[in-house]
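It is worth pausing here to work through a concrete case rather than discussing structure prediction in the abstract. The textbook approach is simple: state the sequence, then state the predicted structure, then interpret. We follow exactly that order.
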Amino acid sequence: MKKVLILVIDGCAPEYLTKETAPAIYRLAAEPGSFAKTAQGAVPTVTNVNHACILSGCFPEDTHVVGNYYYRPETGEQGFIEARGFMKAPTILEKYQAAGKTTALLTVKGKILEVFGNGVDLGISVQDPDEKLLSKLGLPMPPEVQSPGSSQWIFQAAYQCIEKESPDLVYCTTNDFVMHHYGPKTPQAREQIQALDEAVSRIHDLEPEREIYITADHGMNQKTTLINLQAIADQAGFHMVCVPPLKDRYIENHIYQEGGILYLYLREPSEESAILELVSSQEAVEQVLPAKEAAELYHLPENEIGDYVAFAAQDHAFGEVENFILHTDQVRTHGSLYERTVPLIAINSGAAADQYQYSKDIVHYL
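Step two, the predicted structure:
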């Protein structure tokens, strides 16, 4: 088993990571046995779902992680997914550890370590830092989670971790604060990718034989119209629960909990036709699929995604907005089918470029 580094850049649409913004990475990707391309993430295009897939090499139908947020229709219980027990597929971290190899999980968002921390020998979280571990690795205390500096700090942590401990498998992920607030051509976005570029170059110089994979959990797009489908259904008197898979605790990234997909739970079977007519009539709704069809198309567990799945149109999103609808030029978000395409760059790749169609294939071939 070769030593591996997997870098997941949260919210990094391909437009952020280019030859211009990351010249060192692209030079390395041009060498024999390496490549740069795009791949597809899993649906919904939200953080927990795609970390589960990348870490396991499986689709959501096997991981059973279908969002950042859960809802139990039989009891009405709902909440953030921030603890172990939701992930049902074994991860590459667990498999490496079982094989006697050392592992590290480095993350800005604390929930990633909480949800996927099984099999981790060395865990670092910007949100909940271990001062003794940071001191051991020669790292200063991290900045605030919701800041551009948090992702740059985690790149440095990855370098320090590899330099001092050289774990066999390192999984490192950032926060999408920058991508939610700044487009690809902005100085803030370019600064973050430059920090990534420098870190990867330094790590490659340190351990030239280590396999390095760079991808994203999802893309990011500007949204101009948000609608509150739950409020619209409530006003019409329907008994329906709209569950947003994107919803999480990081409110600074999406103040309206806005995302491009909803799981629709119908509480009164007699209302089904009328509800579908109402939902389909909304300009923001591109399509509504029965759970069975959505599960077949996107490899989802049919019994865990409501009765129907609503997908937003390209420039629209579902959100918790007042007065049912909001037109804005201030929202960048994800969750829809339009944020599936992500970069995939491999240095010392374990398989040929054409073998990687999905971001999860990184671990599939490991």
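Step three, interpretation. The two ends are 8 Å apart (CA to CA). Residues 4-219+340-365 form a domain with the Alkaline Phosphatase, subunit A fold (CATH 3.40.720.10).
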